[in-house]
Amino acid sequence: MKTLKKLSAVLVALALACPTVFSVSAAEDSFSFDETTNTLTISGPITYDELQNYEEREDVKHIVAVEGAKFTGDYWEDAFYGWEYIESVDLSKADFSEVTDMGFFLSYCENLKEINMSGANTGNCEDFEDLFSDNDSLVSLNVEGMDVSSGKTFDECFECCHNIEVIDISSWDLSNAYVFSGMFYHCYDARSIILPETVTIKEEYGYYTTYNMFYETESVEEINLSGFVFPEGVDRDISNMFYDSSVRALHLPENFSIVSNMGLENAENGYYGNYLGWIDTAAEEDGIISGDGDYAVLDRGAGTYLRIRPTNKHEGTPATCEEDGVLDYYTVVLDTAYFPDGIIPEDYEYIKYYDENAVYEVKDINGDGTIDESDLVSPAIGHDWGEWEVVTEPTTETEGLRRRVCKNDPSHVEEEVIPKLDPEESTSESETESETESETESAADSAADSSKADSSSKASSSEAAKTASTTTTTNPGTPPTPVPVQLPQPSALQQLSQQQLL
Ligand SMILES: [Zn+2]
């Protein structure tokens, strides 16, 4: 495109040498240049090619159109494309009534800081694609009252204006527009994007697209689409509409069903993924409508949705063997400005928490239907007992003692009496086996008991040991029945060792 423009400029230069060209004197009259202010003033009708004579002029830093300035002809695409020296352009008084194509009109001007197109009568133009795109230095944009009522395509209209903070098109008549793709793409610093109050997109086009419309708008806080009326039953592409946008207050219109690839994810995906979820401000009770990997505002339609994010971190306490702990959590403070009455209902003081992956989640952990403090409890982990160690061997005269230590906390110690050895049993080999067996069973029992109820395990396991010892001593005359009694022994041992491994 630029090569074509250069060629055109050469042709114009040749044409200027020819006395039969009518526009020569008109053009000369229409342009004036002030060397002290580096300002090129347009005061009469100009052609596309005449304008291009000034593109390479390093001293042309400001362009001003005054009364009488007119952009003649319909084609003005790329008019100022890539003009690297201009710093300000004020075309608010120019006549654009003949213009139908303004694609890339003021685009890729790397030093352009100010644009004033307010009130421009661009009402016959249908194409506003990339109108102001890629003006990386742009900080001031006045397009108030600019007539875009015939405009159909606004794709990438403000794309990659990285430094502009306010884009106000609230006065624009977008009633013929249906292509909004990438309109504010990569407007990183735009904290305020002000859209028209009402935009009704025509059904007759059979299609509309908002693809990438707010893609990576990393500073914007609020987007109000509530006045948009999108036609139903037509083809559309709304994917990535909010991809990686920082928007946290989103006003959606009626009949706007959200799709999952709009870029409203809560977690993991994208730079702004680490939010807690979204809240529907109109919901009477639990307004949280997404979270835990879901997409925001799915199928909720019209309403105002707030993206919530953690504010105050509260340190939790780790669970111990016997005591429940509390997870780290964040309390969330919402901006009252977005609620209808300016008051946040008490219900919205939710407590949120996060897991060790630092992915913030909105989750009903305990499944009781509410998200509250009870979801923050991390249950006691239980003791992890080591193996029994005999402290004192029992004899026929005295009881013995054995001890085991918790692997989680060495201050947790459990001791158990080993019953006196039975004088009669100790004389027979088979009786000794029986004694060993009962002791093993009692150890298994006590291990099982302690994992269930730690506070009572000591008493119950001692009791079990006594019972076991009683059982063996109250049946001295019973002949050993090794098969039925010994069968459970391997499984009991296995059970014990498994618990120890845990
Ligand atoms: Zn323990």
Give the SSE layout.
Layout lengths: L1 H16 L5 H8 E4 L4 E4 L2 E2 L1 H5 L9 E4 L4 E2 L16 E3 L23 E3 L23 E3 L23 E3 L23 E3 L4 E2 L6 E3 L12 E3 L3 E2 L5 E3 L11 E4 L24 E4 L22 E6 L3 E3 L10 E2 L2 E3 L19 E4 L5 E2 L15 E2 L10 E4 L7 E6 L7 E6 L10 H24 L1 H20 L8 H5 L1 H14 L1
Parallel strand pairs: 2-4, 3-5, 4-6, 6-7, 7-8, 9-10, 11-14, 12-15, 13-16
Antiparallel strand pairs: 1-2, 16-18, 17-18, 19-21, 20-24, 21-22, 22-23, 25-26, 26-27
Helix pairs in contact: 4-5, 4-7
The site of zinc ion (ZN) has 6 residues, from loops.
Termini separation comes to 72 Å
Mean pLDDT over all positions: 75
Q: Can you give the helix content as a percent range?
A: 10-25%
| Strand segment count | 27
> Largest beta sheet: what is the strand line-up?
1-2-4-6-7-8
Radius of gyration: 40 Å
The unreliable regions are 1-25, 267-274, 291-296, 346-362, 428-502
With helices defined by DSSP (H or I, 4 residues minimum), what is the helix count? 7
